[in-house]
Design brief:
The complex is a heterodimer of chains A (493) and B (530). Chain A is mostly helical and 493 residues long. Helix content of chain A is 75%, strand content 1%. In chain A, a hairpin with a 4-residue loop joins strand 1 and strand 2. Chain B has a domain of 201 residues. The chains are: A mainly alpha (493), B mainly alpha (530).
Chain lengths: 493, 530
C-alpha cells in the first residue's frame, strides 16, 4: 500500500507543498515590498492557489498513501481539496479591494489564508488521527488571527479572542478524544480503528465510546453544529467579511471532510450509535439556526445563523451513513460554498469602510441603484432558501432524498419545514432590496453602494451566480464527480 | 422540420424565457415601449403557435398523451425531461398562452416603474406556468411548480398595492410550505417505486403503477393535497388569496386567478387523484364538503365586500369550490365540468380583474360606493362589464353555465344534498355579482368625479374582445373544447375506478361511469344542435 520513496510521498502532498511554499514567498515579498503596492502578494497567492488547484485536478483518480500512511490521497480528498482551493481563489478575489479598503496587513493576510488552506488539504487527506489533529490546528490558528485582524473595529479582536478560546477548548477536547481512542484500540490509524471498532464495541469499551464522543464534540465545533455553535455568530460578525466568507464555507467543509472520514467511514461499524446523535444534532442545528436567524438585523449575523442551519442540512445527509448520504453531503457542500461565498461577496460589495453597511436595513432600495448586485443577491438568497431552479434546491433535493431513502422520513420533514422557515429571512433581504424605497434623508439613503469596488468582487459574484444557476439546471456533472469521489470508499460502509 | 415537430411543446414553453433573455440583454429600462412590444409580441407568438397544439391534438386517438418529448436529464436518478399534453392540460395550456398577450396589453399604461423587471418577470412566469402544465416527470414538475413562485413574488411585491410586501411574503411562504411537504411525499413515492420495480424513475406513469399500503397512501395523498389545496385555494387554506389578489397589480391578479390557481386544481387532476386513487376516494367526503363550504363561504364573504377587487377575489374562492367539487365526485360530468370551469374561471375572473383594473386606472379607487351610474359615462365599459358579470354568474349561453351545470350534474349523481347546497352557491353568485353591478354601474351618476370618466380606449377593447368571444364560444358550443378532453377524462376515471372501487360495488360503478361518459357526449351534441 504505502509507497515511501520520498518523491512519491511528496507527490501525494503536492497541493500542500505548493500552498506552503507560496505562503512563504508571499511573506518574503511582503517584507521586501513593505509599504508599497500589495499587488505582488495577491498575485502570488492567487497563482499559487491556482497551481495547487491544477495539481489537485491533475491527480484526480489516483489513490496513494504516504508517510507511513499518515496521509492518503484519493478522490474524496481531491474533491474536498477542490472545494477548499476554489473557495480560496474566490476569497482572494473578494479580498483584494477589501483588504486595501480596510487597511489590513496584506502580506500577513494572504500568507495566513494560504497556510490555513494548507491545513485544510491536510485534513482532507488525513489517514491518521494525528494528521487530523495537525490539519485542524494548521487550519485554525491562522483563522484565529485572521478573525482578529481588523484592529480598527472593536468587534474583531473580541471575536478573535472568543474564537481562539473556544477553538482551543475544542481542539483540546478533540485531542483528548484521540488519546482515549488510542488507549482503547492502541492505534491512531484510521484503517486500524475501523478494524478494531467492532471488537471495542462488543466489549462496549468506555474508553472507546468516550473517545468517539469527544471526537464528535471537537468536529461539531469546527462545523458549528448546535450545541457547539456558540462562537459562530460573534466570530462571523466580528471578522473581516472576506474572512467570514472563507470561514463559513471552507472551515466548515474541512470540518465535514474530517467528520466523513473519521466518523462516517472509519467508525461505520457503530453507525447505529452515532446516527442517533447526528439525528439530534441535525435537528437542533436546523431549528436553532433558522429560527434565530429570523430575528437578526445584521446580515453577517443572519448568515452566521443560516450557516449553522446549513451544517444541519449536511448532517441530515450524513445521518443516513450511506453512500447516497455522503454523496449528497459532498454535493451540498460544493453548492453551499458557491452560494454562501456569493452572498458574502455582495455583503463586501455593499459595505463601506470600517465594515459599515452590514445591517439589513442598509440594503433598502438597493435594487434601483445597484440592480446587478441586487440580482446576484436574489440568486444567492433563493438558492440558500432552496428554491428551484437554483443549485440550492439541488443540494437540498439530494440531502433530503438520501434521508428519505434511508428511512429517515421525519428528519426530511423537519428539514423541509425548516427550509420553509428559512425562506422568510432570506426573503427579507429581497423585500428590503426590491420592495422598499430608501427613506429620504436617512443616513443610509446616500447609498453605501456608491464606492467603486474592485473587479475581483464583480468577477466572483458573476462566477458564483452563474454557476449556481448552471448547477441548478445541470447538476449531473457535479453528481458524477461526487460519485467518483466515493469510489473505493464505499466498501467501508 | 421533424426536429421542430418533436420539440413543439418545449419550444412553446421556453419561448417566453427566450423573450425574457432578449429583453434582459438587449433592451434598457428606459426603452419602455420597446420592452412592452417585445414582451407582447413574444406572448402573442406563443399563443398563435400554441394553436398548432390545439389543432394538432388528435382527440380520437387512444393515446391521450400526445406531443410527448422525453430527453434524459439526470438519467441515473430517473430524472427525465419529459413533457406531453393531453386533453385536460391542452385546454389549460391554451388558456395560459391566450391570457399572456392580453395581460401585457392590459398593463401597457399601468406599469411605468421598473418596466423591464416587470415584463421579464411576466415572461419568466409564463414559462414556469406552461412548464408545470406539461411536465410528466415529477421532478420536472416540481421545478416548474416552485420556480413559478419567484416571478410572482416579485410581481406582487414590487408592483403591488400598499400592503404588497405582506401579501407577497404571505403568498410565497404559504405556497412554499405546502410544496416542500409535497417534495418529501414525492421522494417517498419515488423510493417505494425503486423498491417495487428496481429502477429509479420520477416518471408520472411509472409512479402510477406503485402499489401503496393504505396508511402511507393516505398520508402521501394528504401531503400532495395540502400543497395543491393551498394553491387552489380550498377553504380553509384560502387566507393568502384575498391579500395576494388585492395587492397584486392587475396583470398579476389576472394571472394569479386565471392560471396560478388552476395549478392547484390541475395538480389534483394530474397528480394527487391518479397517483393515490384509493386515498382520493377515501377522502372524497372531506374534499367535497370543504369544496361546498368554500362555495358558500366565498359567496357570502364576497357579498359584503365594499372593495371591487376583494369581491372578485372572494368570488374566486367560491368558483374554485365548484372546480374542486367536480373533481371530488370523480365522474365524467364532474371532471369535465371542472376542467371547463377552470378555463371559465380563468376567462371570467381574469376579465373581471381586468375590468376592475381599468376602472382603477381611471379613478384610483376600487370601492363600490365611489361609483354608481357609470353606465352613463362609460357605456362600452358597462357593456363588457355586464357580459363578464353574467358569465361569472353562470347565465346559460355563456361559459360559466356549462361548467357549473356539468359539475352540479356530476355532484347530483353522487350526493343530492351536496348538489343542492352547491347550487345555492350559484344563486348567491347572482346575488353578490348583480348587487355589485347595480351599485357600481347603474343608478344615478351622482359623483362629480365619475362624470368625466373616459370610456374604454381601443387598447382596452382589444384586451376584452377576445375574452368575450371565448366566453360566448364556450357558452354556445362547448363541444369544441369538451371533445378534446373526453378521452383523457375517461382514462383518468378508468384508472381511479379500477383501483379505487371496492370489489363489491365495482360492477355497478362501471355501468354508471359508462352511462356518464355517454351522457357527456349527448350533452355536447345537444349543444351542437343536431
Amino acid at each position: 500500500m504505502g509507497i515511501d520513496s520520498l518523491p512519491a510521498a511528496l507527490s501525494v502532498i503536492r497541493p500542500e507543498l505548493i500552498l506552503a511554499v507560496t505562503a512563504l514567498v508571499c511573506l518574503a515579498l511582503d517584507l521586501l515590498y513593505k509599504p508599497a503596492d500589495k499587488m505582488p502578494c495577491w498575485a502570488v497567492a492567487f497563482f499559487g492557489s491556482l497551481a495547487a488547484l491544477a495539481s489537485t485536478i491533475a491527480s484526480w483518480g489516483t489513490e496513494q498513501e504516504a508517510f507511513s500512511q499518515l496521509v492518503r490521497m484519493d478522490n474524496l480528498s481531491n474533491f474536498f481539496a477542490v472545494i477548499f482551493l476554489m473557495v480560496g481563489l474566490i476569497t482572494l478575489c473578494l479580498s483584494d479591494s477589501y483588504v486595501q479598503r480596510e487597511g489590513l496587513p496584506a502580506g500577513e493576510y494572504y500568507t495566513l489564508l494560504l497556510i490555513s488552506m494548507t491545513g485544510m488539504v491536510f485534513m482532507a487527506q488525513a489517514n491518521d488521527l494525528m494528521t487530523v489533529y495537525l490539519g485542524i490546528e494548521i487550519m485554525s490558528i491562522p483563522v484565529y488571527v485572521l478573525v482578529a485582524m481588523m484592529s480598527k473595529s472593536p468587534k474583531s479582536p473580541e471575536a478573535g479572542l472568543k474564537y481562539l478560546l473556544l477553538g482551543g477548548f475544542a481542539s483540546a477536547i478533540l485531542l483528548f478524544g484521540i488519546a482515549l481512542l488510542y488507549g482503547a484500540v492502541g492505534t491512531t490509524q484510521l484503517a486500524d480503528i475501523l478494524r478494531q471498532a467492532p471488537g471495542a464495541l462488543k466489549a462496549s469499551d468506555p474508553l472507546f465510546l468516550a473517545g468517539v464522543g469527544l471526537l464528535l464534540v471537537g468536529m461539531g465545533f469546527k462545523v458549528s453544529l448546535v450545541p457547539f455553535h456558540m462562537w459562530t455568530p460573534d466570530a462571523y460578525e466580528g471578522a473581516p467579511t472576506s474572512v467570514t466568507a472563507f470561514m463559513s464555507v471552507a472551515v466548515k467543509a474541512a470540518g465535514f471532510s474530517v467528520l466523513i472520514r473519521v466518523i462516517v467511514l472509519s467508525l461505520s461499524p457503530m453507525a447505529v450509535d452515532w446516527s442517533q446523535i447526528f439525528w439530534w444534532l441535525a435537528v437542533l442545528s436546523m431549528v436553532l439556526g433558522n429560527v434565530v436567524a429570523l430575528v437578526q438585523e445584521n446580515i453577517k449575523r443572519m448568515l452566521a445563523y443560516s450557516s449553522i442551519a446549513h451544517a444541519g442540512y449536511v448532517l441530515v445527509a450524513l445521518t443516513t451513513g450511506t453512500e447516497t448520504g455522503i454523496h449528497a453531503a459532498l454535493i451540498y457542500l460544493f453548492i453551499y460554498a458557491l452560494m454562501n461565498l456569493g452572498a458574502f461577496g455582495v455583503v463586501i460589495a455593499v459595505s463601506r469602510e470600517g465594515d459599515q453597511g452590514v445591517e439589513i436595513r442598509d440594503y433598502t432600495g438597493m435594487a434601483r441603484k445597484r440592480p446587478l448586485y441586487a440580482l446576484a443577491m436574489a440568486v444567492f438568497m433563493f438558492s440558500l432558501a432552496g428554491v428551484p431552479p437554483t443549485a440550492g434546491f439541488i443540494g437540498k433535493f439530494y440531502a433530503f432524498s438520501a434521508a428519505v431513502k434511508a428511512g429517515y422520513v421525519w428528519l426530511a420533514v423537519i428539514g423541509v419545514l425548516m427550509s420553509a422557515v428559512s425562506a422568510y429571512f432570506y426573503l427579507r433581504v429581497l423585500v428590503v432590496m426590491y420592495m422598499k424605497e430608501p427613506e429620504a434623508g436617512a443616513e443610509y439613503s446616500a447609498g453605501p453602494w456608491g464606492a467603486p469596488i474592485g473587479a475581483g468582487v464583480s468577477v466572483s459574484l458573476w462566477v458564483c451566480a452563474l454557476s449556481i444557476l448552471f448547477l441548478g439546471i445541470w447538476p449531473g456533472w457535479l453528481s458524477h464527480f461526487a460519485q467518483q469521489a466515493l469510489q473505493g470508499l464505499t466498501s467501508l460502509l | 422540420m421533424e426536429m421542430i415537430e418533436q420539440h413543439l411543446i418545449t419550444i412553446f414553453v421556453f419561448l417566453p424565457l427566450a423573450g425574457a433573455l432578449f429583453v434582459t440583454v438587449f433592451l434598457r429600462d428606459t426603452q419602455k415601449e420597446a420592452i412592452r412590444w417585445a414582451t407582447f409580441l413574444t406572448m402573442l407568438a406563443g399563443f398563435l403557435l400554441s394553436l398548432k397544439l390545439f389543432f394538432g391534438y388528435d382527440a380520437d386517438s387512444t393515446q391521450t398523451m400526445q406531443f410527448v418529448q422525453s430527453t434524459p436529464w439526470l438519467p441515473e436518478y430517473g430524472i427525465v425531461y419529459k413533457v406531453g399534453i393531453d386533453g385536460m392540460s391542452l385546454l389549460l395550456f391554451l388558456m395560459t398562452t391566450f391570457l399572456g398577450p392580453l395581460v401585457i396589453l392590459s398593463s401597457w399604461r399601468s406599469i411605468e416603474d421598473r418596466v423591464k423587471g416587470f415584463h421579464v418577470s411576466m415572461l419568466l412566469l409564463q414559462t414556469a406556468m406552461l412548464g408545470a402544465f406539461v411536465s410528466l416527470n415529477l421532478f420536472l414538475f416540481y421545478i416548474f411548480w416552485e420556480a413559478m413562485l419567484i416571478p410572482m413574488y416579485f410581481i406582487i411585491g414590487i408592483w403591488g398595492g400598499p400592503r404588497r410586501i405582506y401579501a407577497a411574503v404571505k403568498f410565497f411562504l404559504y405556497t412554499l410550505f405546502g410544496s416542500l411537504l409535497m417534495l418529501v411525499a414525492i421522494l417517498y413515492l419515488y423510493f417505494v417505486h425503486v423498491k417495487q420495480f428496481g429502477f429509479y424513475s420520477f416518471d408520472l406513469f411509472d409512479l402510477y403503477r406503485v402499489h401503496l399500503a393504505v396508511g402511507p397512501e393516505k398520508i402521501l395523498f394528504l401531503a400532495f393535497a395540502l400543497s395543491f389545496a393551498i394553491k387552489v385555494p380550498m377553504f380553509p387554506f384560502h387566507t393568502w388569496l384575498p391579500d395576494a389578489h388585492v395587492e397584486a397589480p392587475t396583470a398579476g391578479s389576472v394571472i394569479l386567478a386565471g392560471v396560478l390557481l388552476k395549478m392547484g386544481t390541475y395538480g389534483f387532476l394530474r397528480f394527487a387523484i391518479p397517483l393515490f386513487p384509493a386515498a382520493a376516494a377515501y377522502f372524497y367526503p372531506l374534499i367535497a364538503v370543504l369544496a361546498v363550504i368554500g362555495i358558500i363561504y366565498g359567496a357570502l364573504v364576497a357579498m359584503v365586500q365594499p372593495d371591487l377587487k376583494k369581491l372578485v377575489a372572494y368570488s374566486s374562492v367560491s368558483h374554485l369550490g365548484f372546480v374542486m367539487l367536480g373533481l371530488a365526485v370523480l365522474n365524467a360530468q364532474g371532471v369535465e365540468g371542472s376542467v371547463i370551469q377552470m378555463v371559465n374561471h380563468g376567462l371570467s375572473t381574469g376579465a373581471l380583474f381586468l375590468i376592475v383594473g381599468m376602472i382603477y386606472d381611471r379613478r384610483h379607487t376600487r370601492l363600490i360606493s365611489d361609483f354608481g351610474g357609470i353606465a352613463k359615462a362609460m357605456p362600452i365599459f358597462a357593456t363588457f362589464f355586464m357580459i363578464v358579470t353574467l358569465s361569472s354568474i353562470g347565465l346559460p349561453g355563456l361559459n360559466g353555465f356549462i361548467g357549473e351545470f356539468l359539475i352540479l350534474i356530476g355532484t347530483f349523481k353522487k350526493s343530492v344534498v351536496l348538489a343542492v347546497l352547491a347550487a345555492s352557491g350559484v344563486i348567491l353568485a347572482a346575488v353578490y355579482m348583480l348587487w355589485m353591478f347595480k351599485r357600481a354601474v347603474f343608478g344615478p351618476l351622482d359623483k362629480e368625479e365619475n362624470k368625466s370618466l373616459k370610456d374604454l380606449n381601443l387598447r382596452e377593447i382589444a384586451v376584452l374582445v377576445p375574452i368575450v368571444v371565448m366566453i360566448v364560444w364556450i357558452g354556445v358550443y362547448p363541444q369544441t373544447f369538451l371533445r378534446k378532453m373526453d378521452r383523457s377524462v375517461e382514462g383518468l376515471l378508468a384508472r381511479t375506478e379500477q383501483v379505487a372501487a371496492p370489489p363489491v360495488q365495482s360492477r355497478e360503478r362501471d355501468s354508471i361511469s359508462m352511462m356518464e361518459s355517454k351522457s357527456v357526449y349527448d350533452f355536447g351534441r345537444q349543444g351542437h344542435g343536431d
